[in-house]
Amino acid sequence: MTQATCIPASPGPFARLVTALRDRTQARRRRQRFLRLLDMDDHMLDDMGVTRAEVVEASYLPLSANAATELYRMSLERRRNFM
């Protein structure tokens, strides 16, 4: 008698849809929290090492991109070019 191998079934279309919707909702919430940076005054943003223009530019990225990571990259690049 041979032992059957158990191969996990791939998720069905409904499970994939639910996962995609959940991921999209989480991305929108992250972006909404990110956009709260625009409520801060320029001095607060400067203390954080970013400019308002960088925050706006990062906010235009697609939801699939991590705006906070891109903002950090832009800030580092600006400071590196300044030196």
Automatic annotation (TrEMBL):
InterPro entries in alphabetical order: YjiS-like
Domain YjiS-like positions: 25-55
Domain of life: Bacteria
Name used for this protein in its record: DUF1127 domain-containing protein
Protein source organism: Kangsaoukella pontilimi
